[in-house]
């Protein structure tokens, strides 16, 4: 199948079925994840357009269900990692560093999985912005915007958790605000 034919077919499917698939996803996850999975569903549909049965609605829902299940498994692994890191931070001998680590990890756990991913790609895994953008399959400028917003939400979460002022965690929150 030619790319032009695929685009036309996919455009029709998107117009006809995207709202229904999105509603299905929104009943099972947060809005950001639902949008991400919806995009993945239609990218998959584009790649497999010649093999998708007509009408495609059942296939689209099945693909959405499987992709969302994969995301949820990843989130559970991430939550286990956060719990393990919190346990490690509680054994930190430097009290100021322990406070910052615990504050960061607790508030990080309260953020959306998308925000956690954006923050940890550069913060923990030392990826450059362009490497992180590639990992998230977006442009470097889109990644920069996501990172900026995630840092603001992390700072707000630290503030809401009571990490303010001259404490090490409060200074960390202030640094995130820029």
Structure commentary:
This protein is mostly helical and 178 residues long. It has 2 domains: 70 residues, Rna Polymerase Sigma Factor, Chain: A, CATH 1.10.1740; 83 residues, Winged helix-like DNA-binding domain superfamily/Winged helix DNA-binding domain (Arc Repressor Mutant, subunit A, Orthogonal Bundle). Helix content is 78%, strand content 0%. Helix 1 packs antiparallel against helix 2 and helix 4 crosses helix 8. It is elongated and about 60 Å long.
In whole angstroms, the N-to-C terminal distance is 50 Å
Q: Helical region count?
A: 8
Q: Can you count the beta strands?
A: 0
Oligomer: single chain
CATH architecture of the largest domain: Orthogonal Bundle
- Secondary-structure element string: HHHHHHHH
What general outline do the C-alpha atoms trace? elongated
CATH class categorisation of the largest domain? Mainly Alpha
Low-confidence stretches: none
Q: How would a crystallographer describe the biggest sheet?
A: none
Which structural class best describes the helix and strand composition? mainly alpha
CATH-level-4 superfamily name of the largest domain: Winged helix-like DNA-binding domain superfamily/Winged helix DNA-binding domain
The helical percent reads over 70%
Mean pLDDT: 83
Cα-atom Rg, whole angstroms? 20 Å
Percent range for β-strand residues: under 5%
CATH topology of the largest domain: Arc Repressor Mutant, subunit A
Please tell me the total number of domains. 2
């Amino acid at each position: 199948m030619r790319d032009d034919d695929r685009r036309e077919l996919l455009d029709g499917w998107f117009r006809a079925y995207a709202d229904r698939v999105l509603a299905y996803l929104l009943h099972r996850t947060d809005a950001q994840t639902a949008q991400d999975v919806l995009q993945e569903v239609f990218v998959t549909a584009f790649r497999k357009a010649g093999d998708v049965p007509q009408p495609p609605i059942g296939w689209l829902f099945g693909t959405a269900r499987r992709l969302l299940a994969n995301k949820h498994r990843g989130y559970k692994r991430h939550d286990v990692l956060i719990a393990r890191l919190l346990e490690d931070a509680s054994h930190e001998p430097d009290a100021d560093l322990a406070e910052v680590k615990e504050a960061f990890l607790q508030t990080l756990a309260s953020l959306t999985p998308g925000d956690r991913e954006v923050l940890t790609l550069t913060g923990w895994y030392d990826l450059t912005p362009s490497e992180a953008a590639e990992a998230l399959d977006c442009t470097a400028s889109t990644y920069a915007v996501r990172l900026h917003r995630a840092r603001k939400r992390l700072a707000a979460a630290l503030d809401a958790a009571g990490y303010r002022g001259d404490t090490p965690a409060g200074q960390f929150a202030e640094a995130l605000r820029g």
